[in-house]
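By convention, the token line describes the chain's fold. To illustrate:
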Amino acid sequence: MKKELRFCIFLIIFGLKNLKRNPRRSVLTILAISLGLASLVFTDGLNEGLKRLMIFSATHTLSGHIQIHLKNFKNNPKPEKHFPFLTFQKLRNFNSIKTYVKALAPRIIFKGLISSAESSQGILVYGIFPQYEKEVSKIDDVIWKGNYLKNPQKNTILIGRRLAKKLKKEVGERVILTSGDVKGNLIQEVFVVKGIFETGLRQIDEYVVFIPFKIAQKFLNMGNNIHEIAILLKNPADDQKLKKELLKKLGAKYEILTWEEIFPSLASTIRMFDFSIILMSLLLFALVALLVGNTLIMSFQERYFEFGVLLALGTEPFHMWILILSEVAGLCLLSILAGLGIGELLNFYFSLKGIPYTEFQLGGVFISEPIKCVITLRQFWFYPLLLFIFSMLIGCYYARKASLLNPAEVITKTL
């Protein structure tokens, strides 16, 4: 048993030493495979960084990760589809959801018409509590001119830069807001422009305005009720867990929407990115098949006589497998170490510096910040493991081929 083990160890060492037989070929093969793995690891880090940035931009601009309404409110936001403000207060005190929730804010949402002497525009009006809203959305961070809402008792309004341009209004000037209340009565009031914001998203900057929460309740004659609770999560991946928990707490009359349901185009774009990583993986494995296969073919041809002699001396087919697979394993492990080193160094560098882009829109989301690569555990084990398994499978083909050689035929052909 000990002799067998020693012989197997000898064969493994011998197989690894065979990489030195043609150092140029071995180095070129390792370099090509490692660069392929490095590009895959770097692309995965960049892809993960872009996904997180897109989700952050979408959810932190206004929507939050999760929204709570009465059923069908999102598709048809009628003022009468409201629920008690007490629901928001109860949610804040539920210990079971505090694990997931970073912040939550109550909102009143209704359609209206904003007008000035020069123009008018159909809009979506948000009634907000400034102290809660600033924890969920970044509207207070994108004030272009003027100030954020502060006095909850005055008819003040925040409008987007595009809308201000269309209405030809500046901070301190008046606009007229028109809408129907919960009883269907037409309501019209004058509001003073408190601030002008710019998010970079046309659908917000031109079609969304913000007024104080209490003023919105009074405007719609809806009492102490709300239309929406927006929730920001500590970890966006917990959205489905929290949704299940909220459905248990609130009941069937409520509709719980996750960010994927709020932004279906963004979710589709992210799935497309994931698919692109799969395609890159397939290309890498095709590259591995060509490079490892080519190396083994050349090695097989050079050592054809050697394999015949080993078999003639009584070497078991199993030992031939160990010899060839140890060579493949050595080649693969060196490639993995080099590839991971290069790929993760790039990820680490760009996680600090970021990749600067000019402002662009993707999946319905406005991106204005540098994309920073993200290092994940998957990059250290998933891609290297797949690469190793794939390489060993190719090695198995040539190991089987070598173990089935007829020693007499091999020696006769080569003499």
